[in-house]
Amino acid sequence: MDLAGTIVTADALHTQHDTATWLASRGAQYLFTIKANHPTLLATLAALPWAQVPSRSRSHGRIATPAP
To answer: I need a labelling partner for 42 at 20 to 30 A (CA). Which of 14, 20, 22, 51 fits?
Structure first.
């Protein structure tokens, strides 16, 4: 299955190394939900400089940017 150019989103149930490897091997990019049952990954993500990411507004935990 060729997934080149696609973005796959998944909830925490699918946040598994094998799933990420499978998607990447088929050319997909992915967004997974990370929860406390992946403490090392959660800590790594929490340590990233999120405040430096440009955004337009934040509401209800979402970042909204205007359409081009």
So the answer is: 22
